[in-house]
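JOB MANIFEST
job_type = single_chain_structure
chain_count = 1
residues = 157
[input]
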Amino acid sequence: MAEIGTYLKKHTEALVKDVGIEAACQITGKSKATLGRYYSDNAEHTDRFMPVDAVAKLEKEASYPHVTSALADLKNITLSYDTKNSGGADGSTTRNGGVNADVIALSQRFAFLMSEYQTAIEDGIITVNEAKRLLRETVLLQHVLLDMKLHLEEESA
């Protein structure tokens, strides 16, 4: 359970930082200290997690559903966005390019991830900051893969 808790706390932190700490406080009605406790890895906060309603409010404003994605990962579930409801008020999608652009972006993101990994592993130890950079690159890679999946679904429909 400790591994799951740590995993969820890392994604909770990514969600709060995606929205911004000040904005997250306003959206959730929680203080900076309270939000910090939700993703703190200190032993005294091991059993504290962000309430699901606060997660929903923050993910509505975030660029990516960090915690929902983490929960899905834990159950080996693949998420998919509703292309009819993404984007502008007219239902148009905000994703640019097509599969070719996605393949290029995928190659670039993977190269960035491998570069970060090479830098992190040089001394044989991956520090917390290096792990955070790797996680950030992995999340960005997921975004590209999701866009590619959606473009492929559009082309096959």
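[summary]
The CA atoms of residues 8 and 55 lie 11 Å apart.
Helices lie at 2-19, 21-28, 32-39, 52-61, 66-74, 99-121, 128-156.
exit_status = 0
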